[in-house]
Structure formats: C-alpha cells, structure tokens
DNA sequence: CGTTTTTATTTGTCTGACATTTAAAAGTCT
DNA sequence: AGACTTTTAAATGTCAGACAAATAAAAACG
C-alpha cells in the first residue's frame, strides 16, 4: 500500500484508494483489522486526521466499519446485501431526480427488468410471497387509501414479485429500479377507475404466478407498463395544459 | 438541518446524514454551494475536523464535490451516470466476492437482465454498436488471445449489447451485473472448442439483433447462459476432483 | 486598458491534546 | 479458588489552533 506524494490528488483520496484496492484485490480480507490510525499515519507518512478522512470515505461506502475501545479499530466489512440494497436505492433515486430522466425511460427500464424476473418468480414463488402480493392487492382496493400509500403498497407488491425469483443478486439489482420510481409515481394522482385497472392487472399477475404461467405474468407486466405510461402521459398533458 | 447531541451516533455521521437528507429532499439543489466548513462547524456546534469528516463521507458517495480557493467550497454534485456506473460496478463486484454467491446465481441474474434488454436492443441498435460487437467477435476468434483478454472482450461485447437498448437507466443497472461477473469468469480456462462455441453464439446474437429478430436474440442469450453454466460446472468438477 | 501583484477566502494538512469507549488485566471479597 | 469489582491501556471520537496551498477577486502598475 503506497501513495504518490507528487500526485496532485488529495492525500486522503489516495490513501482511501490504496486501501480500497487492497480490499478489492484480496490483500485485506473480510473482518481483518486494519492498522490503527496512528500506525497508518506512520505508514503513509501523513497525520492522523488525514488518515481519518480516508477511513471515513471508506466507511461511507460500507467497505470498513470502525469500533471504539481497546480491541477496536477499523475492520474490513462484509458488504451485506442489505447495505448494497440501501446504496442502490439512494443512488438510483438521486440519479433519476438529478438527471432529468424521462418517466418513460425509467418506466421502461423498470418493467423490462421485472419481466426478466417473471419466469423465475413463476418457478420459485412461495406461499409467503403470494400472500404478500394478495394482501397488498386488497389494500390497494380500499377506497380511502391515499395516493402515497397506494404507491407504497405498489412498491411492496413489486418487491415481493422480484423476491419471488429467489435470486438475491436479481433482488439487489432491482431494488433500485423499483424503489427509485416511487417519487416519480407519487406525482401521479390515481382516480378510482385508474386504481381499479391497476388492481385488476395486479390480480392477473399474481394469479399467473400462482398458476405458474410465465407468459401470462409477462403479459400482465407488459399491460401494466402500458397502463402506467398512459397514466403518466395524462398527468403531464394536464399539467402542460395548465401552464 | 439539525443534529441530536444526545444521540449515540457519531457526530460526523449525523451531520453527513443531515446534509444528505437535505440533498435528497431537495432543500439543496445541484451545484448549490454549501456553507464553508467553518460556518458549518458553527451551525452544527462542532469543530471543523468533524465537519470535514462528514463532508468526506458525502464526497465518497459523489454527493458533493469540493473546490479549493477563494470561491471554493463544497457543492452539491450532479450524480452523473458515469459516477453511478462506477459505484455500481465496485459494489456489485464486492457483493459477489464477499458473499459466496454461487456462480449459478450470478450467472442467472446476469442473463435474465440481458434478456430483458434484448427486445429493446433489437429495436434501437445502431451501426456503431453492431460494429463493436462484430469486432469483439473477431478478436475472440484470435487463437493467441489470453483467457483474461477473452473475458474482457466478452464484457465489451455484452456492454455494447446492453447499450444498444438506448436506455441509460438500463445500462446503469446492468453495468454491475455484467462487469461484476468478470472476476468469476476469469477463473475459467477456455479451450479452443469452448471459445468456438461462444463465438458462434455471439455471432448468432449479433445477427439476430441486426435482423431485428428479438426471439432469436433471446434464444441466443439463453443458449449462452446454458453454455456458460456448463463450462463453469466443468471447471468446478475438475477442481473438486483434484482435492 | 491590459498586465501584474496583492489580498482575502477556502480547503488541505499538521500538531497536540483531551474525551469516550471498550476489553483485558489487576485487585478484592466471599 | 471463584466471582465480582476496579483499574488500566489502547483505540477511536472530538476539539483547538495553526500553517500551507490554491484560487479568484481586487488593487496596483505600466
């Protein structure tokens, strides 16, 4: 682990990169303790605050965790699926909100990915996931549900659909795509008739998955994408007509 | 933006969370300048090093960028697709390497996602992307190519396939799935016959995309998944037989 | 008016110190 | 001897103040 003092980059950045490379490269393995901050400061020939800033950078990426006390220190962190989910969701959300990604583009990506899950979900779904989907459908049918709660329920429904594929890598990849859409969906107001159509499609999808009918599930998702796009277009037309 | 001094969490973590929430919430917009470190230290009633550690955490997530000098400071950063790609790739890579994800699971997720792209790629592919895929196929046919270079070319091929869908959100989501597989693929040694089969499937896929035949493209990807799994199984059997 | 120099501001880094947490070691009582 | 309590040492967390370096605006100068 070396750094280049002649480089223009900040020292703390270089140190963070150096340690990160060691982790990715396998020189530092999970749960291994890094040298103490003072020792790292000596090794890299910098002061302790500089080392600390580097460690904070790594901690922000869940690459290390720190522990205080006598046997404390910085440890290489096992990146859990939960950590990765969370990162994925915030990154995706910011990406969409900051880059003027059209609703259409985001929607297309999301449903393309979900359709990729469907054949696996059909094969592997368990009773829990079917029950979750059905109970969310029931909730979505309640007339006094707010639009926001409706969207939240929608997210839960689709997460169950994705988790039914029983592939944690897929679930991780899709967490962002599904949850990042929520702020965009929240801009839509759903009429009772809109909701009824969506609930009907949800029912169709869950029955297809129950019956292990992959084609019907995919078709249902396709119809849901079309429906969602139509709804969004209606909203945007109304909005532009007002201005 | 407030923090809770009675909380057990570290101050720098709380400050980072507070600023992060302000960005996600829209209170701080892209390119807006944050108060200087000294001002933030006053506002949060902490010392400057503590503020700095908080800012480094945010910088590590590409949420802010810093600039030195008279008009410098910390600015809310527009999270670019490039930044997000890079984060996605390293997160996915670490996730796979640290969690004993089976080759099968990773492979299944990757090809499921790629098949989701195929129908869109068929519709939107341009000449550049077809040319890239064909030139990578040519390279993969060179007998003196190392296994590592073969895998790298494979990644380039598949990225072109994904980019052909012309959906940046999809490309971002898939960057991780495709590139994170590379270290796993690198464990495989490809015989000349293995390579020939893969190249043949790649050719089939690119022709299908050229001909706008979505079904053939999907079938080709399915066959490639099967082929890849067979190869991996062969490697693992050989390896366990040796021990 | 254009160029150069100065200056003020801000981040980057250093030094040294103290506070807090934590587990192990030492001590004490039964 | 064993269980409980106290002490201690090591590590991170935080603070204060200082200087270095970069940078753009302001001032000085030709």
Task: Give a description of the structure.
Two copies of one chain form a homodimer. A two-stranded antiparallel sheet of chain A has the order 1-2. In chain A, 40% of the residues are buried. Chain A contains eleven helices and two strands. The first copy, chain A, is mainly alpha-helical and 243 residues long. Chain A has two domains: 11-76, Arc Repressor Mutant, subunit A (Orthogonal Bundle), CATH 1.10.10.10; 81-242, Four Helix Bundle (Hemerythrin (Met), subunit A). Chain A is elongated, with a radius of gyration of 23 Å. Chain A binds a DNA duplex (30 and 30 nucleotides) through helix 3.
A few lines on this structure:
With 243 residues, chain A is mainly alpha-helical. Chain A has helices at residues 11-25, 37-44, 48-60, 81-98, 103-124, 127-141, 147-163, 168-179, 182-185, 192-210, 214-242; strands at 64-67, 73-76. At the A-B interface, α1, α3, α4, α5 and α8 of A face α1, α3, α4, α5 and α8 of B.
């Amino acid at each position: 682990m070396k750094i280049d003092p002649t480089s223009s980059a900040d020292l703390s950045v270089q140190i963070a990169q150096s340690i990160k490379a060691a982790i990715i490269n396998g020189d530092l393995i999970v749960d291994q303790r890094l040298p103490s901050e003072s020792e790292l400061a000596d090794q890299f020939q910098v002061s302790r605050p500089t080392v600390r800033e580097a460690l904070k950078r790594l901690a922000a990426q869940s690459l290390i965790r720190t522990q205080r006390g006598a046997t404390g220190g910085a440890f290489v962190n096992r990146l859990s699926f939960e950590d990765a989910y969370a990162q994925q969701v915030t990154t995706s959300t910011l990406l969409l909100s900051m880059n003027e990604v059209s609703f259409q583009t985001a929607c297309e990506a999301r449903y393309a990915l979900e359709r990729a899950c469907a054949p696996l979900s059909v094969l592997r779904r368990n009773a829990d996931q079917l029950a979750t989907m059905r109970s969310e459908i029931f909730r979505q049918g309640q007339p006094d549900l707010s639009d926001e709660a409706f969207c939240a329920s929608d997210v839960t429904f689709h997460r169950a659909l994705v988790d039914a594929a029983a592939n944690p890598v897929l679930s991780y990849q899709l967490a962002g795509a599904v949850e990042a859409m929520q702020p965009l969906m929240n801009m839509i107001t759903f009429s009772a008739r809109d909701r009824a159509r969506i609930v009907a499609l949800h029912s169709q999808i869950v029955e297809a998955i129950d019956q292990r009918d992959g084609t019907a599930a995919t078709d249902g998702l396709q119809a849901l994408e079309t429906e969602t796009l139509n709804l969004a277009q209606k909203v945007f037309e109304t909005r532009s007509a007002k201005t």
